[in-house]
Amino acid sequence: MGRGRVQLRRIENKIRRQVTFSKRRTGLMKKAQEISVLCDADVSLIVFSPKGKLFEYSAGSRFESILK
């Protein structure tokens, strides 16, 4: 049996919100890396935290010349 549906709404508790952000950000980065490897796709992911910190991931031949 699968998981129940999660109701999407803002998490009021600051600590829980930060923990959820960190876990979901890590999951997104992992999925971006997986789709890049499995499908040989060029992938770029940019995430800003609530405090404005930048997290980014990129993979693929198109991004090699941009990042150097």
UniProtKB/TrEMBL annotation:
Record's subcellular location: Nucleus
Gene Ontology cellular component annotations, sorted alphabetically: nucleus
Molecular-function GO terms, alphabetical: DNA binding
Principal location listed in the UniProt entry: nucleus
Boundaries of every MADS-box domain copy: 1-61
SMART domains cross-referenced by the UniProt entry: MADS
PROSITE patterns reported for this sequence: MADS_BOX_1, MADS_BOX_2
Transmembrane segments: none
Keywords recorded for this protein, A-Z: DNA-binding, Nucleus, Transcription, Transcription regulation
Annotated Pfam families: SRF-TF (PF00319)
InterPro entries: MADS-box/MEF2_TF, MEF2-like_N, TF_MADSbox, TF_MADSbox_sf
UniProt protein name: Agamous-like MADS-box protein FUL-L
Naturally occurring in which organism (per UniProt): Cardamine amara subsp. amara
